[in-house]
Amino acid sequence: MAPLLELVLYSLLLSFVLSLAYRFLTNPEHLRQSKANVKIFREKMNDAKKAGNTQEMNKYLSEMMKANQVQMKANMKPMIASMIIFFIALGFLASFGPSVVAEPQDNMLQFGEPFNASGSLEDGVLALDQNGNGDVHDDPLLMNGEVFQRGEYYWQVELGETTTKLNAQLARSPIEFPWLGHYLNWFWIYLLVTIPFTIVFRKLLGAE
């Protein structure tokens, strides 16, 4: 199975697990009532402010803050549980977008799994033996930040002062995202999948 598809499926599974945790670690009816109380007290506070009634305004402000505290306390337990689950899964999710650091070997650079190729670096330009014929000069030369496709990944070149890396990107978007460009690594794909589907799962589970 392609790494991109696997990551999407595991992201959906994690999103569902986090939604389940939220559902069973909170009282949805209690939370809905707290939100409604916050809204009611805010409206009454604004009305009192418009009327110039400082005493009433402070009273409803105090009530609104109490309702907010109840809401925050109710969300604390599922938030902690979600963070624990996420950090446990973080290393596994990151494995879908590996970074391969070049190791010097016989005046060449050797890139290990999952790239498996040799290369050389001269004057800030990376030459890679992408086709595996032992010649690094018959493939396009690569500058820092350039992206090329090989196998199931898009690889982004990172030429540092002391290290040479290839960072796996899982997808190319037809839309150019600000600060990201066209290529998305595992983290951004995870966010793009989990944010909308967590909302959907919570609604289906009655956790909203």
Task: List strands and helices in order, with pairings.
Blueprint: H1 3-24, H2 28-51, H3 54-94, E1 99-101, E2 103-105, E3 108-111, E4 117-122, E5 125-128, E6 147-150, E7 153-159, E8 164-169, E9 171-177, E10 181-184, H4 186-205
Antiparallel strand pairs: 1-8, 2-3, 3-4, 4-5, 6-7, 7-8, 9-10
Helix pairs in contact: 1-3, 1-4, 2-3
Give a structural overview.
It is a single chain. This protein has two domains: 3-96 and 194-205; 99-169, no CATH class. Helices cover 51% and strands 23% of the residues. The protein has four helices and ten strands. The chain has helices at residues 3-24, 28-51, 54-94, 186-205; strands at residues 99-101, 103-105, 108-111, 117-122, 125-128, 147-150, 153-159, 164-169, 171-177, 181-184. The strands form three sheets. Strands 1-8-7-6 form a four-stranded antiparallel β-sheet, with no helix packed on it. It is elongated and about 80 Å long. The model has no long low-confidence stretch (mean pLDDT 88).
